[in-house]
């Protein structure tokens, strides 16, 4: 017997027949002796219809009234599902978010969950009831101390389910949906996409667009932070679906369930060397050749960064452990003799990183990280960002000072500080899945001063406008006046805001200007085994080269390698990578 939270999405309760089918499924699970809390979404399409209805009256309806309106969608489905369960002889009781004790912050339309008052739930479960909870909604106390209805943001029912699982310490949370689970890539673009039986929450978050299509990222974040055992599976089959795993198990603290600290660790990796190759030919196959040869030569590369440049040359910068520097130099010199370009190396560097679920969903985090470091007078040599990690390379001598400063900024305790962590090889593939993001734009700020605080100022300006940067790449090439270029990728919808946000900065940096990049697609390969399996990046670049795709930008983090390619090459690129890493159906039948 187990305590299970089961969530059924909008399509799964889309009409009376489906509600009845779901009720049967729940009844069977109850007959097995499980204690059940069921979370449901509004019937498919309802939330959109209600939104449209409001928009026909006002383009800008008050958020409070929108919450009042949208929360009715879920109220319909909990009542209908409970009626269907009663019909099957199951004693069920429907509950709104407020009734069940889901307390949120007051931000209407996007409230985060602060707490779940579990007493009423526990009592109902003890009485043997199946509790049917309205997803996507909660309650908050207004400034006058009166209760108000809030909603969590679109797709928020997943968040309700996982939050309930965390608060009740449920044995598992099962998300029932209209897809079989999480697939290795988007099946509409790559028909060979295959079901993943397992994926870690970190990998899921790094697979951004792919993961979010199946599960709300905030739900994944809660599962990761509190160690909720989570499954995504089809409402219409008995297949086990995908299991999401997480390492860290945290107690729900006083800081609030969803507002738990976004940063949960800082780490310093010392004795790193930066290798900067400049003026490389800008054509397919260069990055592939370089990293293949390094991997054959036994060098495991950590961060790789390639920024865009006007003209027909590229710079590629990467880091290796200092002990591999000599070997790397020899290998690079050989390659450069064949393809042309310059080599410059620097040792005595350290990589400083913060990690935590959903760092990128909160643009202020990266900004305050960089700000803290620059206030200590430390220059950022390289920057690498991902969904769950922000890293920079700094002078080793300043490492200690930096790690202390960062730990105090994010209020981290001793056991959250890691000095020279060792990557233990895990039983995880180097590439678990491949995601394509097409709603992204690239923007470069040219001729920015090369001094502490530049990246911080950029990120802070964006953060103040609520814009998350997906990747920030500081180019290696220095202009004659000592200035550099910084490029970043952001959501296309934020493109206009970004221009406005940057105006004051550009005014402050004489000679600097914005440059819009070409239409881009970002392809990301993600796998927890990536840090310990050498040669992954080279293999990915080779797959792209073989498909004759030129790489405009490279940004890696621990478990993700992303390449920016031209917009029209996006689909071709994920197909090539998916195939090369044998992620498709065929491989399954062979193994
Ligand atoms: N009904 C809400 C929506 O459509 C919440 C959910 O389905 O998760 O966004
Ligand atoms: Mg959903």
Give a topology summary:
Blueprint (H helix, E strand, L loop, with lengths): L2 E6 L7 H16 L3 E6 L5 H12 L5 H25 L4 E4 L1 H4 L1 E3 L8 E4 L2 H8 L3 E5 L2 E5 L5 E5 L5 H12 L3 E6 L20 E3 H6 L1 H5 L4 H10 L3 E5 L7 E4 L19 E17 L4 H11 L7 E4 L5 E9 L3 H15 L2 E14 L7 H13 L6 E4 L3 E7 L3 H11 L7 E3 L13 E5 L2 E9 L5 H11 L4 E6 L9 E8 L3 H14 L4 E4 L3 E7 L9 H11 L6 E5 L2 E7 L3 H11 L4 H6 L1
Parallel strand pairs: 1-2, 1-9, 2-6, 3-6, 9-11, 10-12, 13-19
Antiparallel strand pairs: 4-5, 7-8, 11-12, 13-15, 13-16, 14-15, 14-26, 16-18, 17-18, 20-25, 21-23, 21-24, 22-23, 25-27, 26-27
The structure holds aspartic acid and magnesium ion.
The site of magnesium ion (MG) has 3 residues, from loops.
Structure description:
The chain is an alpha+beta fold and 591 residues long. It folds into two domains: 3-245, Acetylglutamate kinase-like (Carbamate kinase, 3-Layer(aba) Sandwich); 265-580, 2-Layer Sandwich (VC0802-like). The protein is 34% helix and 28% strand. Strands 13, 14, 15, 16, 17, 18, 19, 20, 25, 26 and 27 form an eleven-stranded mixed sheet that branches. Helix 6 (157-168) runs parallel beside helix 9 and helix 10 (286-296) packs antiparallel against helix 16. The longest helix is centred in the N-terminal third of the chain and has 25 residues, at 63-87. It is globular. Mean pLDDT is 91; it is low at 587-591. It binds aspartic acid (ASP) and magnesium ion.
